[in-house]
């Protein structure tokens, strides 16, 4: 389906693995020009090659740590130099280590805040610096249903993801007048289809540290749709929100989680 994204310049952070990978491939199918910013350029390079096969108009990988503002600025400069601007930013990078709050340390809290929240601040600021003068753009941030429901073993992460939901609404209010739309997608548990879809820096590199097979089965059974989320489920929602088809939608938080949360 033509969503009006042909040749648009799209930046996807964390596009090397799992959900980010599927988002890159979703934009590739729309013939977009894609810049992947990831700390793992090797895995991102594999995704770039796949994206070219799936129809991307052009793809580049820029090794980037989103917690470092200078590296983020270099990522955006690279997209502007090569593709003439930035039409879409997908803030996809996220990270967590599942454990009860009483087992966590202040060092772990700082890492979760830096990777999940400061990374979004760095990238959103860099995006607005390009999008506002050019009077248009779309930002989609990947949050989590943990931000809406609260979740055991995800206390700090859920709180930080809730901050992203609020931040994006404020940014939507401040920048709608410049034609910039900002929305949020909240995945539920979203599992890679195969080990090829994740690199060594992915949270899923050792999926045993996330959930056991028994827990996966329980989660799937508990959902209204009775199945686990897959990365392509998230990608569809992101491509839609980034596209002109969603041209009158801003400041929204959309759960893509098999019905895990239902918020009216
Ligand atoms: N998979 C899930 O079940 C799930 C559920 C809810 C929300 N989410 C959110 O969806 C997003 C993607 O999750 P995923 O499961 O695909 O994660 P993942 O760990 O599989 O992939 C994350 C990607 O980001 C990159 N990355 C990590 N830190 C980085 C940094 N500092 N700078 C640049 N790149 C960095 C990694 O190299 C990797 O390619 C995250 O925001 C996550 O919080 C995931």
Tags for this entry?
single chain, 264 residues, alpha/beta, Rossmann fold, seven-stranded parallel β-sheet, 8 helices, binds nicotinamide-adenine-dinucleotide
CATH topology: Rossmann fold
Number of helices: 8
Order of helices and strands: EHEHEHEHEHHEHHE
User: Which CATH architecture would you pick?
Assistant: 3-Layer(aba) Sandwich
Bound molecules: nicotinamide-adenine-dinucleotide
Q: How many separate structural domains?
A: 1
| Class inferred from helices and paired strands | alpha/beta
Name the average pLDDT. 97
Question: Helices, strands, pairings?
Answer:
Layout: E1 9-13, H1 18-29, E2 33-38, H2 41-53, E3 58-63, H3 69-83, E4 88-91, H4 106-131, E5 137-142, H5 146-149, H6 155-175, E6 180-187, H7 213-222, H8 231-242, E7 253-256
Parallel strand pairs: 1-2, 1-4, 2-3, 4-5, 5-6, 6-7
Nicotinamide-adenine-dinucleotide binds at residues 13-14, 16-20, 38-40, 43, 64-67, 92-95, 115, 119, 142, 144, 187, 189-190, 198-199, 201-204.
């Amino acid at each position: 389906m033509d969503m009006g994204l042909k040749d648009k310049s799209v930046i996807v952070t964390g596009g090397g693995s799992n959900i980010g990978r599927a988002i890159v491939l979703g934009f590739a199918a729309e013939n977009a020009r894609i810049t992947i910013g990831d700390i793992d350029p090797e895995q991102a390079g594999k995704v770039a090659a796949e994206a070219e096969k799936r129809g991307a108009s052009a793809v580049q990988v820029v090794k980037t740590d989103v917690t470092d503002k200078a590296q983020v600025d270099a990522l955006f400069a690279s997209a502007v130099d090569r593709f003439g601007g930035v039409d879409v930013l997908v803030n996809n990078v996220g990270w967590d280590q599942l454990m009860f709050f009483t087992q966590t340390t202040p060092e772990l809290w700082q890492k979760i805040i830096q990777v999940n929240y400061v990374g979004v601040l760095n990238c959103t600021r860099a995006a607005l610096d390009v999008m506002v003068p050019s009077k248009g753009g779309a930002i989609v941030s990947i949050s989590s249903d943990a931000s809406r429901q609260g979740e055991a073993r995800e206390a700090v992460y859920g709180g930080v993801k809730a901050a992203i939901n609020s931040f994006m609404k404020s940014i939507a209010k401040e920048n709608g007048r410049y034609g910039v739309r900002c929305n949020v997608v909240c995945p539920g548990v979203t599992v890679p289809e195969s080990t090829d879809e994740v690199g060594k820096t992915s949270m899923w590199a050792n999926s045993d540290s996330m959930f056991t097979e028994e827990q996966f089965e329980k989660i799937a059974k508990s959902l209204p749709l009775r199945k686990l989320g897959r990365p392509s489920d998230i990608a569809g929602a992101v491509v839609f929100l980034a596209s002109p088809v969603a041209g009158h939608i801003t400041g929204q938080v959309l759960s893509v989680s098999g019905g895990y949360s239902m918020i009216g």
